[in-house]
Write a structure and sequence with these properties.
SRPBCC domain-containing protein; ASHA1/2-like_C; 142 residues; START-like_dom_sf; globular
């Protein structure tokens, strides 16, 4: 069975503004953090650098697999301390509902992680995505 983290937010901006917030390096810094890169083209890179709670430098990286009409971007996600075979996939989908824009984040592929680490990593990622989506909503709901 595929394990998936799926979360959505509704924001008060256009879909174009939402796309820009997700794919422009300067915009990403305003809600996700510094040193985030997501190049909106097939083969483009994803990279996030941060320090964990213990002060250790961490890196997540990946490649963009698909981009659809500035409404959807899918990219791989791998942490530097994960086993070589562990790679997840993240998809951002933008749409409109009742004159408002929404973003759905769907992060899958957790079954590639070792079973003894999977539950904790998924819990950490769910908390992380909830935090980042809250920050994005606050940033865009001006």
């Amino acid at each position: 069975m595929k394990e998936v983290i799926e979360l959505s937010i509704i924001v008060k901006c256009t879909t174009g503004e939402l796309w820009h917030a997700l794919t422009d390096s300067d915009e990403l810094e305003n809600w996700w953090g510094e040193d985030i890169k997501l190049q909106p083209k097939v083969g483009g890179s994803f990279r996030e650098e941060w320090q964990d709670d213990d002060g250790n430098d961490q890196v997540a990286s990946g490649k963009v697999l698909s981009v659809k009409d500035k409404k959807e971007i899918t990219f791989t996600w791998k942490e530097k301390d994960w086993p070589r075979s562990a790679v997840t996939e993240c998809k951002f989908t933008i749409g409109t509902k009742e004159k408002k824009s929404f973003l759905t984040v769907k992060h899958s592929g957790w079954e590639t992680l070792p079973e003894d680490r999977r539950a904790k990593v998924m819990k950490d990622f769910k908390v992380g995505w909830q935090y980042h989506l809250k920050e994005l909503k606050e940033y865009l709901d001006f």
